[in-house]
Structure prediction request, 896 residues.
Amino acid sequence: MGKSIAIVGSGLVGTVLAIALKQQGHQVFVYEKGDDIRTLDFSGRSINLALSARGWKMLNRVGLEEKIRQFGIPMYQRAIHHLTKEEKQPYGIHGEAIWAVSRGGLNKKLVEWAEEVGVEFVFNTPIWSVDSKRGILYMSEQEQQEWRAITHDVIFGADGAYSKVRSSLQRRSRFEYQQSYLPIAYKELVIPAKKEGGFAINENSFHIWPRKDFMLIALPNMDGSFTCTLFMPYTGEVSFDSIKTDTEVTAFFDTYFPDALQLMPDLVELYAANPVNSLVTTTCFPWVYKDKVALIGDAAHAVVPFYGQGLNAGLEDVNVLLDCLAAHPQDWEGALDDYQHARKVNADAIAELSYRNFREMSELTANPMFLLRKKIESAFAKKYPDLWLPLYDRVTFSEGSYQEALAIGDQQAQIMDVIMAMAAIEEKWDSPEIEEKIKQLINENRGF
Amino acid sequence: MGKSIAIVGSGLVGTVLAIALKQQGHQVFVYEKGDDIRTLDFSGRSINLALSARGWKMLNRVGLEEKIRQFGIPMYQRAIHHLTKEEKQPYGIHGEAIWAVSRGGLNKKLVEWAEEVGVEFVFNTPIWSVDSKRGILYMSEQEQQEWRAITHDVIFGADGAYSKVRSSLQRRSRFEYQQSYLPIAYKELVIPAKKEGGFAINENSFHIWPRKDFMLIALPNMDGSFTCTLFMPYTGEVSFDSIKTDTEVTAFFDTYFPDALQLMPDLVELYAANPVNSLVTTTCFPWVYKDKVALIGDAAHAVVPFYGQGLNAGLEDVNVLLDCLAAHPQDWEGALDDYQHARKVNADAIAELSYRNFREMSELTANPMFLLRKKIESAFAKKYPDLWLPLYDRVTFSEGSYQEALAIGDQQAQIMDVIMAMAAIEEKWDSPEIEEKIKQLINENRGF
Prediction:
């Protein structure tokens, strides 16, 4: 017997969840506060997606993997733009790629596909409050108006980092909640396609200009352009506060990103027009109320974007939720409770990994010793795949849990600290001595 | 020129703030979601107040100290009820007292006094949202109804740990917020006055039955009764989950609080009737928006009650706010910004001290070595008041900042750890050797 299910939020996680639940025979209604995304020009505050194993696994489960691969671009490596040279760093030890996909484009398709399978969308309908006990959504165009009440069997909050469904749970006693902002913000920019068509720089790379306290990244789009994101502090010497005028912007890019500047004819216009966006991490618990309400994706765990795992983690939520429902087909309360316990520890782990990765991206990728460290790890992992899977690969290309990835990654880091402290490591990094030393250290750690 | 000021919440901090601002010539309106407290029977979920130096200082500033002393009861000591004996521990090294005051009784008086000086109260008017930029309060009886909008020059959120004014700020970008619950809850109980009148136990003591993971406390009321609070985990072997029936309650008190049980004829009725209340800590920042909105008291910093400083900290907020307004009479934005920076570090410090003090109250006061430690500190402090002010005295009886108290307290704890580890400390605790050792350790710490 199908349930009447409300999903608040028509973003990527909400629509995939809608499709999955509809496929299982439920009635599914998606409430979206804004317009139908298919009518919108979607840009200005999105960081392009990088889909990896966890995301693909869920998309495959609803039968959409192949369709979506059609408009994704595989990125096999980091292209690191130092001031005077460019360097490549492969992502996967076995040639794996992360996939650049347009957030807006994918979202439009997902709404279309969801409608095709019979999901009902209710646009322009903000939810202001949720009565968790009775499963009531309160909605109206403006918060100050009289609210309408609609009841469903189950309500999912897939309404993102600023979730209203979560706000309602937050009023309940014993709801643990934290929201915290980085002192770093971001602004979207563009490298357009070449006049004659085609990509201005290699399209199968994730481009990064690491400058320690700030950085620029670029991900390819199907039309030959790149969506760029500038990450920089709000305040300080080099910051969104200090770089404002067209002259300051041009001088800043000329100093720190001269190669990118050549490729960005609309830089000053876009810099002036696009907003400075904040980077929030939220954690909360519980994620569910009995068999009535559940949070999913960013609504449950918004993370900073530096591991490219925000969407992948949200889609893995959906995957685990479906597993829990399959294990308790007649018991939603038990299923939702299993879901939240299975996911909470992993959400906390990916939040921590994402937070740490800003430093890896912005500072360490500019450091030759860090790049050597990655090269040693990668060489050893290729030769001894049973002994070593690098942290990035475990997070991005494996299905092992984030919690395990964090724990094993910390052990590996300790081992690599010892290795990198060895004399003349630059000369003998691929010697049998190093290999044996790593093996010995793994054994001392009782192996993983 | 007076401002039109809205204060949300007619609790203790809100009413004292209202009186102070009214005295300075502003128009002051207090919006209260519930009934006029003067019409209410106020009980069941309050922990009695313990007013100390910071609270009295502010009450004195608005001319109410003497009036309020009339219905307070000084408590000069902890009366520690071990299972088989009772022990006294003085609070202040110079005989100071903390003052038991009825929360409900004081609040009723404050509303009365505020009305007498011309503060306008608007009862039964919940605020659902605040437009910080424009200084608009949105209100209506029920959240789901059409809201009315009222504009003021300045809006204070004095609406407690679950502040709606704070919820509105929380929607702003870069608002840091955390709410966290203890696994321990509390229930209010009563030791009534003796049949023939008068107090059943010493009224000039703060009574405490420390049992490590749980404890009972009792504070005197003017009518001869004591308001008791049982603190206990939600779940586990001894917990609100496991102790429910009348038989379980009586057996539990008979085992752990036999002397109190004799004084509580209505125990099982009250235990069944009164709610189990949660203990939340909230932290946030910023506390203010320009010259328009400011949080104060629990709305800005709800702490757990184990240092008896919740209200005192809130009244100190008012005091500092008035100082800041006096320093910037024409610049509310500057005054409010100074206020939040002056108070935030101290609010964080008292939150930490309050959190730690559960262990001191529930566990350490039952420990002979801890009581000896306090005795050594106290003796040394009496003899060398310039060298040592114990942490409790600094928090409770001094006007030094909480931040400084926390830092100095940590230094003192290190010194006392060394002292308590000395051989045969039980025998020689008041010897010149110990005194000299403390002096030497203070010197090594460069003195404080």
Remarks:
- The longest strand of chain A covers residues 184-191.
